[in-house]
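Two records follow; treat each independently.
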Amino acid sequence: MKNQVSSGQAGIIKESPRIVSRRNFISSCGCCAACAALAPATLLSSCTSAGSKKGKMKIKVIYSLHSTVQNQPDWPNTGFDFAPPMEKINNALTKNFRDIQFIPILATGPEDAGNIVLQDKTDPVDGYIVYQMNCWNRVIQTIAKTGKPVLYADFQFGGSGGFLVYTSAFLRENTTNIGFVASSDINDLLSSVKCFRKNPNEGFALAVADVRRKLTPAPGNVQVNKDDLKTLSAEECIYRLGKSRILAVRDQNAGVAEPLAGIPIEFIPFSEVNEAWSHADKDESRSVAERWQKNAQSVINVPFTTLETSAAMYLGMKKVLADHGANAITINCLGGFYGGHIHAYPCLGFHELNNEGLVGGCECDINSASTMLAFSTLTNGRPGYISDPVIDTSKRQIIYAHCVASNKVFGPAGPANPFTIMTHSEDRQGASVRSMLPVNFLTTSMQINQERKEILLHQAVAVGNDPDDRACRTKLCAEPKGDIEKLFTMWDKWGWHRVTFYGDLKEPVTAFASAIGFKVVEEA
């Protein structure tokens, strides 16, 4: 999603000993468009209650987001009201740090961030807390360049994608004034705020990292169930991949791309998929929809007509695959749907394809689709689960979140786990699945990069499913094996997506990588 940068002037909240009206409050913020969107009591009380005693440390709290009430599809979801969580954060800060004045403000992107820094030159602050509330708003980059201590925090299931990508870039650059918090426990944030008192500038990142490590639980003694995974030899897998084909639906253009990890890639236009959808047999579509409705634990806010159009998309994709002799398809689903090029989300169709041993991949992410196909082939049909991960140090977990997931993680002939049919999370439209994936099994998450000839890999034990309504519907919680701190370091080079398989794939993937001249990079 593109960031929406306010054209208004972003200002600061001036110190004032009096309680101000909402109109005066906005005026004191320089009439910025972001602050004008605030609910009447969202930030006022926490701002004024901090007081303005001379000599008090001043920390500006910048919320990086589109608007107080989200008006576009993005994490957490359209219509999400950020006012209550911002109020909770502000109240916790002022309650626990009476010796610090916190100055809350919104910023939508670089322009707002630049205006904040400019005004802080005449009314200086001692440091910043930047909360990534939506994923890709670029505010932290400008604030980081001030050289002042900055505590960068993830609003989980809201800003996690940008937070992980931007944090890993800071770590790669060894940015010493940026400390970060990735925790669902607000006490971890409060413990990190204490570092402002003791560690100016260059020592700040190390001080916050020390706090984070101390608060992260030690690895648990998690039960791991037996998994009778059987894999192909690297040579047989390579042979089968050479006979495979991925269809990539990015726009209205067609053509052939260079193979990825030995897999042929063909681009086809939206129009071909849409035509196949429109000609899908109505009776067969209804039958598939009825089966989905029967097999799901429940269907929430999705009318039967939407199930029918989703089933028609599934049947249309099957036809397109057959026409091209392909066994994998990945579609720019949101671009196609919002652009009017396709008229049903492919989420349920992807779910069904993955259950059948084929590949349905999200967002026309060819690297992820190739990862799904390569290791589904290697594991005799186990589906890959493409996801947008979130890291929560307070639980020592990585949470794999997406609106497409199989419910047959051990392959087409394996047992099925429960699933619920719901709307696509970001925009509350269409139909997707919340799959309650099995726990107490080892998983292996990967991503292929053709350009660098590398395969990224980490492993984790599945421990639960998070039902949080924010962000994508399926959220598999897992405890990573290895160093969770290292798990923060690769996102800027590899992007946000990972593809998770059930089973211990480390040795067979290493053998496969060696056979095709690739290197395995372990990220934990």
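The next record belongs to a different protein.
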Amino acid sequence: MRRFTSGLFILLAILLFAPHVHCKDLADWIQEAGNEESDESRLEILRSLRDSMEFPKGLASELSALIEFIDRWVHSPRLEFFGRDVLKEQDYAIGVPESSPLHPLTHLYRGRMRVWVILEHGGINKEYEVRRARYDLAREEFEKYLEHFPQNRIAKMYLGDPFPPEKAYDAPENAPAWAVAQRESLERLTDIIHWWIDHRLQEDGQYGGGWGDDCEMWRWWVPVLIPFEDPKMIEAQKFFTRAIMSQEHMKRGYTDHVTDVEHTAEDSADAITPMMHLEPDNPEWTAMALRLAELFETLWTGTNDRGFLQFKSTYFSVDEVSDDPRKACDTVYHPRAVQPTLLYWQRTRDSHLTVLFSKWMDTWVDITARGERGKPKGIIPSAIHWPEGHVGGIKGPWWDPNNHSADPLYVWPSAMSMMTQTLLLTYHLTGQEKYLEPLKSMAAIRLKYLQEGVSGNHEPGSAEWCASKLGGLSSVGAKFHFLTGRDDFDPLIAKDSNPYVKYRRNGNRDALVKALGDTAESLRVNSPGYTSEVRYTDRVLRFPAVFGENGIYPEADPNVKAPHTNLLYASLTGDPGDLGYFPMNAVRWRTEPRDFAALVVESSNRSFEAEVYNFLEDERKLGVEFYLLDPGEYKWALMLTAKSETILDQGLVRITPESHQIDLTLPARTPLTLKVRFRN
């Protein structure tokens, strides 16, 4: 308290001995600014203060510095302008010393900057004590701020006092619990996305995080962007994609900056992929996807010493591949470089791409079966070294290729789901069982681990260590089950799957309803934490993590929920996994994501079923577009959920690659079921 006491004495001295300053007026100005929730309003208050009275030279300079900083906080085109300083020094030079009466106003900004740097740079804060120390500094700033300005709800929010919702969503009594939770989640997520488009989208297409982070925005838009038809989102995504792909560094179809694949690929993959979902027949996006195939075939890959096709390096660009032996690795992250092309291949079954990608996946099938450099047989490694084609990097343990400065990025299991889903896609398009072998062998290792209940620390690189880190494998198995009806992965799915997959398997909705309810609850409060407070555009939905274990407090707050956006997407589309690689979204609801809920209960290549609920007080017209149904004639029926014998509408539809939609009219506030069945 000594620092703040001295600051208070200085303030009193100024007020007592500077006759041109009015004591009550200055204190009131500072209190008004401090308790104001809006940064823009606080900025205007401080500007008015500057114009209202004269100050001693030092205080005038401090006020100008504070105004300049807050103006930058509000208006800078780069939201995280402070990031490097706070990451390195754990502070930012605002220009207001501790002795200044204005200094208490800086605590709010110092706390916010520290929190968002922690959220952005999770990898370097993994050590408990390092993370604890950083969060303690942030918490102290908010606590000090509230000592001076106890009414400020933003500061309270960072300390766990929830910022209340601005609106509520009343539900009819007959609305199913899943529909109520899903509808609220969709409404609030849509509000957040629209806020970003309305308040952060700049004239050049950026959102304030730089191209490399802004391109990732669409990933958390997925539950509303992909299953629905929201004109504002579609136009914003199209605008962004064209803007980034027309940048000088992207004009040849891929970045001309040489860096690692996780970062070199994102500008193209995260720009082209969403547009291929939204406008699948647009030749503009097809051309971009095929450009990546050209680079894959002619520049990035080669035949290794074992005779298999692989990427030559983790570092490459549109016209260069690094020749650094340490970086010379193909990795499970590399599907990102050709993500749009894989989607194009999935939809068209292009024969040339089948040859290319099958040869690449042959490499990973072979290396998985090998037990070398300590890698257990049957485990997909995170990296394969070029040109030898052996497991891991140039030296060191098999599980740490040491091919990147931020090593954890490619340390096993790294982005394993990218590779497992690409292998499943290759099986789907070729029908060859060999592409399932890596998935089956890892599933067996994971299942044994779960059945034996092994716990404790495991030797890094051992089979038990690998098994403990394979929690996401069941979603790939679920995709296989929904795709084929086969039970190859069912034992693993039964023990290790998300609430939506469990519901599809056993019909029990309890866990699904709870998860959807948690998502609604998480988005119901703390809306500034998802909008105006966010400083890194690849961390928009991360605010609840502040209240997790070893967060702003040492213990997690069990009352703070996190949004399950993948589960929201799954329930709306029937895809048991995520959209990134080998998407299996069965349906698109061609309506806006408002006052509507849909739960896909069955999706295959010959049938589809979903429960739907229209929350509007009037009937609703919409199109329903099917993505997984085989060509042929289908019978469809819209019926009352409670009385399946009461059919409200029915008809026949012929599904073709060019035409795969039916049009419906949903009565108001009535639980309904839509069934579609193959006829011939």
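Discussion point: Residues 1-24 have pLDDT under 50 and may be disordered. How would you locate this feature using only the token line?
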